[in-house]
Amino acid sequence: MNTRVYLAVLAASCFSAFPTAAQEVTGAPGSPSATSTIDGQSLPAAPPAFGGTINLDAKDSKSWWSPTVVPSKGAPNVLLIITDDAGYGVAGTFGGVIPTPTLDQIAANGLRYTQFHSTALCSPTRAALITGRNHHSVGFGVIAEQATGFPGYDSILGPDNATIGNILKNHGYATSWFGKNHNTPTYNYSTSGPFDQWPSGMGFDYFYGFMGGETNQWTPWLFRDHSQIFPWKDQPGYNLTTAMADEAIDYLRHTNAATPEKPFFLYYAPGATHAPHHPTKEWIDKFKGKFDGGWNAMRDEIFANQKRLGVIPESAQLTQWPDDLPKWDTLNPDEKKMFARQAEVYAAYVAYADNEIGRVIDEVRNQGKLDNTLIIYIEGDNGTSAEGSTVGTAFDLAAIQGINMPVAEQLKFYDAWGSDTTTPHMSVAWSWAFDTPFKWTKQIASHFGGTRQGIAMSWPGHITDKGGIRSQFHHVIDIVPTILEAAGIEAPQTVNGIAQKPIEGVSMTYTWAKGAKDVPSARETQYFEMFGNRAIYHDGWIASTTPAAGPWLLGLGKLPNVLNGYNWELYDLTKDFSQFDDVAAKEPAKLKEMQDLFLVEAAKYQVFPLDNSVATRFGGTPSTTAGRDTFVYTGELSGLPPSAAPSLLSRSYTITAEVEVPEGGGEGVINTLGGRFGGYGLYLLKGKPVFSYNLLGLERFRWESPDALTPGKHSVVFDFTYEGPGFAKGGTGVLSVDGAEVAKQAIPHTIPFLATIDEPFDVGIDTRSPVDDKDYQVPFRFTGTLDKLTVKVGPPQI
Asked: What is the mean pLDDT of the segment spanning 130-143?
């Protein structure tokens, strides 16, 4: 039988119980309790014509209510879960050594998929996940912070790419988003908006989570809808991983109490296991000593587990260990001790997050809704992260800017690793091993170490092959059409009057029946691209470029010509599951065919122009501060996002504070950006002006007046002369009071690209963590009067 015919027959036989698109009406038309489905071709649906009668007197008139829009009968609740920075070999469900009993449970009640793929990076995968379109098609060829002014890379989803939230909301679902939002342009983070690309603008009626790629789980940059909130201030031991589950459970209870028949779509995206790795001590202690055998032994163990579980074929081969990463037996005792600790904390974070996800699922079960809830649990939005450098780090913002932290320095934080005094990440070698059996890591779109994700789905009564394994080739863009088919909803042609781009994914529901194990994949072709590394899959083959450098090198070395300087590899996936055996030399005609196909797909989905730069892309987006060189603030201000604040990186600047000190002296923060893990602070300490510059937690430079300010008005100035051009250069800072120099110091280097991700610009107060714990603790509100703060910046010297 023809493959496509077979798929059609299978779909018709297995899913006749799915909701249909035919209109369903309940209740007496015009009554307050009337409901109706909609065809959904245009969203929102046009209001129906008034069906009552209107005369001069209400007694002679007949009222009529528009029916409430509802999904089709039997449409499921949907719980869509995606974790962060976890490759194929992380979860125990897919052979990893870290227990993930919640993911196990979903797999046991449904299906595991062994050839499911991400885009290799955070924002892009998430954009594809919620739109059902390729990441370049919706402007997310890279993360939002690295956006460039091309359609495939501008980090703007656009009104022609309605999300699954938009669609389900307009069909009567309660829609909510918990956790990470990495799909809002960074220059739209402030309270001045616009909010069209915040979760609320993307169809999610409720948002509780953080903005950007990561946040500190102990003191997160947290939002409820559009407002910053600070729940951790009054809750000792607060951790967002638990708090997020608490919030989701509370939300489910409230929606169930108010509208028990209304289906929900809950998008659950914890920060785990992106750095910083912040599990609780309770979870860290569970993994003490579990990784003392090292990454090579762990890799062998994972590979054996994977074969035992059947999540890789018996014929699969373990790819070679790279020459530029050390083998465990070559390390000294200090290195082994520190590296094992890194993995213990990472593993604790994985297990901790899985446990909290389980609590949310338990709430669905307790409400009696589990049987009609489609649960999709994706372990990781890309391969395991290699952004912690080859040695790991106690402070992740240093590592992602190319600043390595020696093991001897890391050991000073051994006991505090994962606590609120660190933002840790692990060695690349662990990341590589956690992507077993594949090569490479996060950011590498050409190889499955960057793109292969473990995923499980369950929906009792519909996914009937409980505990089954599926090997069809699929991609994250296939989730939206899967949800839509399950809910009996067609993708809209227009949303808010704007024609929509076609959904580019294909539904995975054809894999759900017991007889679907060996059905050919409905996805025949899929391109991959990230930072110039690229691949093309077609009908069991994949052609992949050889990465020119590891992602931990940040693209700062010499890179080949992005168009024609890359070597290509070729793999026959029907025989070679892990991209072990490169047959490019044996199959030149096939390779050429695949290369040509990549060009076709890349042109179709806005992949051009190719760009293999990485770190140097930061800072090129539009900005609310563009064109301004002087910033003036009066009174207390807290929570201004870094993207809306003056940037002091790679330039000269002057900060001038006009203050009035009260009788008895004053103290407190005058101005700060960032905190414990990078940034600066200008403050009075026991009356003495201090300027502290925190180089990403690794080093601090300090200017302090020898004398306290007397009561009355004063002008405190910090002037810094940058010694550019280039990133991270040094300079000379001068602290002055009332025109007289009180401290002067030259420093050898400054922060390269990012002072902070999740700590704001504050005036007169500090709201998250201190720039120097030895000097003060937050909020350290200024006790005098701040008449005016002026920040004047020079041109960038890069």
From this structure: 98
